[in-house]
Design goal:
With 252 residues, the chain is of the alpha/beta class. It has one domain: 3-Layer(aba) Sandwich (Rossmann fold). It is built from eleven helices and seven strands. A seven-stranded mixed beta sheet has the order 1-3-2-4-5-6-7, with helices on both faces. Helix 9 links the parallel strand 6 and strand 7. It is globular. 49% of the residues are buried.
C-alpha cells in the first residue's frame, strides 16, 4: 500500500482535504486551522507530492481516488466530508463515484470534469521534462492567485510558499500527475454521483474558469454551485469565505 503523508488535527466530524497539482497539504494551512476548531481535519499529500511516496510510471485520477479511499478507510471510522481543490476536486469526482459509502458529501473547488484541449497540458509536461518544474513555477503561481492579493504582504508570502512547494515537487511525479489531469473525462460519470455535492467556482479563476464549475454542477444530480471572489487556489486566498461556504453547505 502506498504511503501517504498526512496530518490529523482537531476533533469532531471528519473532513478530508485534497490539494491541487504541484501543491502539498500545507496549501490547506489556513482552512485547516479554522475547521479544526470544530472538526477532525485530515489533510494529505497526493502520491508524488510533498512527503508522500514517489511512485514511478503512468497515473490516473482513479488511482488518486483509490489512494484517498484507502486513507479514509484506514483513518476514519465514519463517512467523511471530502473537500478537493483543482486536482483534488478531480479526485473528489472519481472518489464520489467509486466509493460513495465513505462519504457524507463532497466539495469540488476550482476544478473541471474535462479538458477539450489537452495541448496546454502536453506542452507543460514537455517543458517540465526538458527543464524541470522550476521552468513553469512562476507562471503557475501567477495564475493561482489574483494580482491584487499577491501584492499584499500576506499574498506575497503565500505566493512565495506556493512557489517553493511547486519547485520542490518531483519532476517525474509532476509529469505523471499532469498527464492524469489532462486525461480526465467525468462528463457522463458525474451524472451518477449520488452523494451531496457542492461545486465552488472562483470568479477570477483563469485556470478553471467558472463555466467549468457550472458544467459540473449541472451534471451532478442535486449539486449546489457557489462562487468565491478569488483566482485558482481560492482556499489560500480567501480561507474565511471558503470555510463559510463549507459550513453552510454541511448545515444544509
Amino acid at each position: 500500500m502506498i504511503q501517504l503523508n498526512f496530518i490529523r488535527e482537531g476533533q469532531g466530524p471528519i473532513v478530508v482535504l485534497s490539494h491541487a497539482l504541484g501543491c502539498d497539504l500545507h496549501m490547506w494551512d489556513a482552512v485547516a486551522e479554522r475547521l479544526a476548531k470544530a472538526h477532525t481535519v485530515i489533510r494529505y499529500d497526493h502520491r508524488n507530492h510533498g512527503a508522500s511516496e514517489r511512485v514511478p510510471g503512468a497515473l490516473s485520477m482513479e488511482t488518486l481516488a483509490e489512494d484517498a479511499a484507502a486513507l479514509i478507510a484506514r483513518e476514519a471510522d465514519e463517512p467523511v466530508h471530502f473537500v478537493g481543490l483543482s486536482m483534488g476536486g478531480m479526485t473528489a469526482q472519481a472518489l464520489a463515484l467509486r466509493h460513495p459509502g465513505l462519504l457524507k458529501d463532497v466539495v469540488i473547488a476550482n476544478s473541471s470534469s474535462h479538458y477539450p484541449d489537452q495541448a496546454p497540458w502536453v506542452a507543460r509536461a514537455a517543458r517540465v521534462k526538458a527543464n524541470g518544474v522550476a521552468d513553469i513555477a512562476a507562471g503557475a503561481v501567477e495564475r493561482w492567485l489574483t494580482p491584487a492579493w499577491t501584492a499584499t504582504p500576506e499574498g506575497t508570502a503565500a505566493a512565495a510558499a506556493l512557489h517553493r512547494t511547486l519547485v520542490a515537487t518531483d519532476a517525474g511525479g509532476y509529469i505523471a500527475s499532469c498527464n492524469a489531469v489532462a486525461a480526465i473525462d467525468f462528463r457522463e460519470s458525474n451524472r451518477r454521483i449520488a452523494v451531496p455535492t457542492l461545486v465552488i467556482a472562483g470568479t477570477q479563476d483563469l485556470a478553471t474558469p467558472p463555466a467549468m464549475s457550472e458544467q459540473m454542477a449541472a451534471a451532478i444530480p442535486g449539486a449546489k454551485l457557489a462562487t468565491i471572489d478569488a483566482a485558482h487556489v481560492s482556499a489560500v486566498e480567501r480561507p474565511d469565505e471558503f470555510v463559510e461556504l463549507l459550513i453552510n453547505f454541511w448545515r444544509g
